[in-house]
Amino acid sequence: MYPWLTPVWQPLLQGVRERRLGHALLLKGMAGLGKRELAGRLATTLLCQHTNNAPCGMCHACELNAAGSHSDLQVVGREGRSIGIDAIRELSRIMGESARLGHGKVAIIERAELMTDAAANALLKTLEEPAGEATLILVSSQPERLLPTLISRCQQWLVPLPDTQLALAWLQEQGVAATPAALSINQGSPLQTLDYLNTGADDKRLQLLTALAGLGETASHLPTVQAGLLEQPVHLVWVQLLLQDALQVALGAKAPLKLDDCQHLSRRLAGTGPLALHELNSGLLELRRRLQPGQGRPMNAGLQLSQWLRRLQQTLTHE
Fold this sequence. Notes:
Layout: H1 6-17, E1 24-28, H2 35-47, H3 60-67, E2 73-76, H4 85-95, E3 105-109, H5 117-128, E4 134-140, H6 148-151, E5 155-158, H7 164-173, H8 180-185, H9 190-198, H10 201-213, H11 222-230, H12 233-251, H13 263-270, H14 274-291, H15 301-317
Parallel strand pairs: 1-4, 1-5, 2-3, 3-4
């Protein structure tokens, strides 16, 4: 188990052993913290045939869980873009049956925020009339998208972000050279940071931001920068963080920079002044907002980004 999960796991384990957990639990926290593993560990513990020593790892139930073939454990939401009403109805039907091994039933709904309204309402009916020793575990990185009536019927367990030093130490144990900047870019998530570093995204970020900050000197790089920013939405987040750091430097604020490995770029951009940086930052925020799905008519992302980059280029040229 990931070390940062221990503060949440210990009270959960104690709750199982003392039989005081509710029939519905919500494990919430940002993506990339291992909530899925935590839910699986909790399910194994609830189904273990030796409650006072759960999870024992030796009983038949623990062996079945380890093999991924326990008939009293159901998992929904691992695949697909949404969780429909049919999946929830089937889950409710199965949960209403007697446990085959006689030690309760457990259902895990991963990415619970993907439930349609109809599915969520169907699940609500199940929560209002829980069956026997059935336990439902909802896992969500966006709990604000869940129905308030659904949340109110669950015991809520927050999986917090780990301490920076703990996260960096764990990443080092995985064989990657992580920096506070890489962790910051991934919102403090060790698992997302590990994937980010293993795919070489950190090198791409440094190259892209260096080229962007140099647009005032080398205008020919503009098409390359534009193409790089359009590859993935997160690339615009990199620029946003750099602009925020530059604004912080321009204002003389003493708080730590988000991208401490790009201080030289932040200082270069800071020379454009707080007002120009504020306008560029606001323009980029609006651009990112309009690029999100469901924001009205589809927009020409390339054209809009090109216009923003030309404003940045003009600002840097007249610095």
